[in-house]
Amino acid sequence: MTATQIKVAIVGVTGYAGMELLRLLHAHPYVQVVSVHQTTATQETLDQTFPHLQSLYKITPTPVDPVHIMQNADLVFFATSSGVTKTLAAPFIAQHFPVIDLSGDFRLNAKDYAQWYHQPAAPQALLDQASYSLADFYTNDKSYIANPGCYATATLLALAPLAQAQLLDADSIVIDAKSGLSGAGKSLTTASHFITVNENMMMYKPNQHQHLPEIMQQLQRWQPSLAHIQFTTSLLPINRGIFVSAYVKLKQPLTPKAIDALYHQTYADKPFVRLMPLDTFPDIKQVVGTNFTDIGLTYNPITHYLTIVSVIDNMIKGAAGQAIQNMNHLYHFEETTGLNLIAQYA
Ligand SMILES: NC(=O)C1=CN([C@@H]2O[C@H](COP(=O)(O)OP(=O)(O)OC[C@H]3O[C@@H](n4cnc5c(N)ncnc54)[C@H](OP(=O)(O)O)[C@@H]3O)[C@@H](O)[C@H]2O)C=CC1
Ligand SMILES: CC(=O)N[C@@H](CCC(=O)OP(=O)(O)O)C(=O)O
């Protein structure tokens, strides 16, 4: 059966994640990008502003007009900064128009959002219409999809097999996550200057990161007895990639082979999760440019800690790629459509 072609709009196309969506959707056989949007009006076509798009996208970005988008497209992606969709989503939600939102605005309940994003949340009536969708465990039944955050994706996929089997020891979950600079978006800050980031590494937002409640929310859906995790984030001097080291104890003793088997069982039918042989670990470069999450683990029989490493490309699996994976599910396309990517080796 040939899948129908769908028409999509991208809001936030001039940002890092929006531009990555445009790049990946260009190769998607069932998608046509019909409009792109940025904050302000411009006379320039996309390929005039962005030379790498020369001859590919002679389309002019416009400010968001929900009526126009809904008349011309079948689906809209929002790759906008946090705080934008909570004010722009209402007309789309009122019409049950499909939205995939890459921002954090619809991932959390109102109380957690206000606490962790330091701004008021979207109205409850709108939040009720959104579904958080970790694409590898897609169960969404709503037209508004809240695409997961980058750190949350890598962390949740590292812990999913154990949490789903109720095996995590609640008091011993330590997550040390590191990201490349593209995760911070295109706006320049003192912390993102080349001189500050290059040949350097720094921890930021320890115990304060907005993905902490997002991770807890999903972990508790799998293993309700969990109450807290220790979560830190650091900046790496690379463009793309997330490296998560998770250190956990289990509620009951399992042999390394049994743990490995559990991971294989959980991810047997998940095309975007790849497992390393036991006691070996993935590196960031093997997933950069792809929608894969690569996971490795090892067990320490002295401390009884299990170390799990997971790596993703923050721009693809952590944002645009996962959004397309969610779109593929929503439209019943093959999950991997448009996402058959191999990392650059050298
Ligand atoms: N970068 C990453 O690795 C990841 C990002 N995300 C999330 O995805 C979203 C986008 O991230 P990123 O691309 O890094 O951010 P950027 O800061 O690079 O881009 C933000 C984009 O949003 C646009 N925008 C802001 N306000 C409006 C508005 N009112 N109307 C239309 N467009 C608007 C900006 O347009 P303009 O050109 O006019 O400024 C810009 O294109 C964020 O919510 C981020 O948290 C999630 C996972 C990973
Ligand atoms: C390196 C870096 O700065 N990363 C960003 C990730 C932001 C993000 O993805 O924001 P959402 O909350 O919308 O998911 C950060 O740590 O805040």
UniProtKB/TrEMBL annotation:
Key words, A-Z: Amino-acid biosynthesis, Arginine biosynthesis, Cytoplasm, NADP, Oxidoreductase
Biological role stated in the UniProt entry: Catalyzes the NADPH-dependent reduction of N-acetyl-5-glutamyl phosphate to yield N-acetyl-L-glutamate 5-semialdehyde.
One of the protein's GO biological processes: L-arginine biosynthetic process
Pathway named in the protein's UniProt entry: Amino-acid biosynthesis; L-arginine biosynthesis; N(2)-acetyl-L-ornithine from L-glutamate: step 3/4
Active site, renumbered: 150
GO cellular component: cytoplasm
Gene Ontology molecular function, alphabetical: N-acetyl-gamma-glutamyl-phosphate reductase activity; NAD binding; NADP+ binding
EC primary class: oxidoreductase
Chief location bin: cytoplasm
PROSITE patterns xref list: ARGC
Protein name: N-acetyl-gamma-glutamyl-phosphate reductase
Record's catalysed reaction(s): N-acetyl-L-glutamate 5-semialdehyde + phosphate + NADP(+) = N-acetyl-L-glutamyl 5-phosphate + NADPH + H(+)
Organism: Leuconostoc lactis
Keyword NADP: yes
SMART domains in the record: Semialdhyde_dh (SM00859)
Cellular localisation: Cytoplasm
EC number(s) recorded for this UniProt protein: 1.2.1.38
Family membership: Belongs to the NAGSA dehydrogenase family. Type 1 subfamily.
Classification via InterPro entries: AGPR (IPR050085), AGPR_AS (IPR023013), AGPR_dimerisation_dom (IPR058924), AGPR_type-1 (IPR000706), NAD(P)-bd_dom_sf (IPR036291), Semialdehyde_DH_NAD-bd (IPR000534)
Domain Semialdehyde dehydrogenase NAD-binding: 7-145
